[in-house]
Amino acid sequence: MFGSLGFTELILILMIVLIIFGAGKLPQLGEGLGKAIKGFKKSVHEADAIEADAQAAVQQAAAPQTVTTASTQGAALNQPAGAAAQPAPRS
Question: Which residue from 5, 9, 2, 29 is spatially nearest to 18, judged by alpha carbons?
Answer without folding.
Answer: 29
